[in-house]
Structure formats: C-alpha cells, structure tokens
TrEMBL record:
Compositional bias (Gly residues): 26-38, 47-62
Protein name: F-box domain-containing protein
Xref: SUPFAM superfamilies: F-box domain, RNI-like
Signal sequence range: none
Parts of the chain that traverse the membrane: none
Segments of skewed composition (Basic and acidic residues): 1-18
Region annotated Disordered, chain positions: 1-74
Organism of this sequence: Triticum turgidum subsp. durum
PANTHER family attached to this UniProt entry: F-BOX DOMAIN-CONTAINING PROTEIN, OS11G0201299 PROTEIN
Amino acid sequence: MDGARRSTDASDEQEPKRPCLAVAGGRNGGAGGAGGSDAGDDDSHGDAGGGGGDAGGGGGVGHAADDPPPTLSTLGDDVLRAILSRLESSRQTVRMCVLSRSWRHLWRSVPSIHIDRREFGSDHELQSFTDFLLDHHNNLVLLDAFRLLLSSQDLRLPASDWVRRVINQDDTPPHQLKRLHLCNVHLDMDFASHISDDRCPALEDVRLENCSYLTARYEITSFSLKKLVVDGLYMVQDDESDDDEDEIFKLIIRAPALVSLRLAGELDHIVDINEPHTVPSLVDASVHLPVMTDEELNNVEENDATAHQSVLGVLLNVTTLTLSHCRLLFQPEDSVELQLLVFQNLRTLFLDECYIVGEDFVGLKPYLQKSPNLEKLILRCSKVQPGYSLNWYFGDDLVDFMCENLMLTQIIYQHDDDAAPLLVAFLLSISRSLPNNKIELIRVE
C-alpha cells in the first residue's frame, strides 16, 4: 500500500506536465509539432522505457514475503498495455501515458482505439487528435477494438477515412480486429466487404448506431461474427438506381456463428425479407421499432403484417426474443405466414410497449400458440389497439392450443395503465391452455 501511495504522489507531482498532452492530441492544430518531438525522443527514451518494462516484467513474476508489493511503475509493458486498453477512451490513455517517462510511448501500441466526441470541445480538436493517433500508432493491423462515437455526421468525411485506415489496408496481413463500434458514421459502399472474413477474420462484435449508407443493399458475411447490433438505419441514395427517390436500406445477414442480434429502425429497413439469411446459431434476438402515433396505427396496412411475420421468420431458432413497439396483429388460422412461424426453441418472450390488436388481446394468441416450449412471458406497458374485438372469429372457445411449459407471466404496468386488467382477464380466459402459468403483476413509476 505504501508503494501505491508513493505512486499516486508521484502522479500528482507530474500534474504540471499535462499541458504537453494538448500538443500531443493535436489541440490548436499542433499535432504535427508533437509528432516531431516524439520522434526525436525515440532513441533517447524508447530503450529506457523498454528496459523499465522488462525489469518490471521480471519483478512481476513473484516477490519475497518481505518485499514490497508491485506498483504500476514495476509492471511490464504488456500488462500496462492491457490496463490502458480498458480505459474508456484513447484520450484517457494518452493522458495516463504522460504520468511516467517510461510510459510515454505505450499509447502507440495499445491494442484498442476509442474515440468519443463528448470528450472534445470541437470537431477540429477531435479530428486533430484522431489523425495524430492513427498516424503514430505502431500497428493498426493488431488492433482488437475500434470504437468511433460521433454526435453528428458533420465529421462524416474524415470519419469514413478513419474507418478505411483501420479496416481496409490491402497491403497488410488480415486484421486482428474483434470489436467494431461506429456511431453517426457515413459508411461507404465497400464497408460490408471490408469487415468480411478476408479482411477481418477475427471479428466477433459489430455495432452500427445511427450510421448512414451509400448503398441500399448491405450483405454482412462473416464466419466469426457472434454479436451484431444495427441500430437506427437511414434511407440511402443508391447511385446505381435510375429512380430519383431514395432507396430503402435492407440488410442481409450471413453469419453462421452469430449468437446475438439487435435490429432497430423502421420495419421496412431492418432486413431484406426477400433474401435468405444464414443465422443458425442465433439464440438471443431483439427487434425495436419506432413508437407509432394513433394515426399511424390506424393507417397500418395489411402488408405490414406480412413484413412483420417475415422479419420474425429470420429469428425462428432463438431462445430469447424481445419485441419493442411492435404491432401484434391478428392472423387467421389459415394464414400462410402464421403456419410457417414456429418458435420451437423459444424460452423467454419479452414484449416491450407492444400494440396488441383486440380488446380481448387475441393478437397475442398466435405467439403463445407457436411457442410450445415457452417458459417465461414478459409484457411491459402493453397497449391495446382500440375499437374492435375479435371474439366473433373464435366464438366462445379461444382454447385450441396448449402451452404447458409456460411457468411465469410478468405484467409490468404503470398506475394509469388500462391494459393490465385486460391482460389478466385474457390470460385467465385461456388458463386451460396455460395450466402451469403463474401471473405476476409489477407496478413501475
């Protein structure tokens, strides 16, 4: 503990040196000067830093009972790089490296880059810092994580260049990148090919948030990808189209190892329902649609039901399914789409603020009927589609299926929620189909 306190005190003494960080980060356009300064110090301080790392590494193997415990200054470079890579941003990483003379070049070889617009006072400051960071990183091919979070698309041109520099270097060996998170980035037409197995064979986690696209057809093909989040899709202009109107973005997924999938956006934008998707390993999926107004609900067309069913058809193998702001439409028993939907593996179904057709909630019935192994049902702030009931279709007998494995239904509601008692009444009316079901009411503010 004494060593740890001494290390902290030493850090405090180094605080006056922090202004040099602004130069290294490119503040006020000084990135180039900082780069020259670092290059000039490589011979004089680089070896010393490496020696300190080796010595620290040797000391880290073990120590006698009467020896002081290891401190940050005695840790090896590999351990320090692992610690630095877990900081929230690359700016914090650079700041940490100025605390010790032997650490001053470690940021160049940290295997992760995290850029967050919220940490910078201006776009110019962010651009200068990021340009400098990428220019002086020892080996971008060895990155295992790249995160670029922008607050708007004002930096879309330099951001596209940064993404290309990280994942599109044709004259280099395949990248070791495992995690890629992009927010408010303008992606070019070749982006999907850049994250394919040829360029990024180790890629496991991709998150695209509020990104825009230059093509209407994106096919993500990866044998290594395990987690995919595509959140907030935009309509795009397809340069190859003769139509003056914007094309609608559609996603095609061919990822045999994909385990987790989150899709958010307009229903028509989420996935291409006319193309086959390859997701045999998928176990956890969520679909989040925008909140609809009453007018939009009343104008929902029948083909939206078909599109909804087709999107769900991509997710048939999942064990956990979350649907947010979806419209659970009533489907006749002879509906082709309904007959094809069977969630054989589904164990947990979470319906978050979904619109359920019919005051008697008959729109929920097909989801129970087509999930024979469902164990847990969660209904959060469900909304009733008002104006009509579908009892006329079934008459008095709504019980023509069995869901014996359903053990718990949680109804999460607010104090002014009119749907909660209707949901309870519906579940009780089909209790013969749910012989083991327990209803739990949870009130939230």
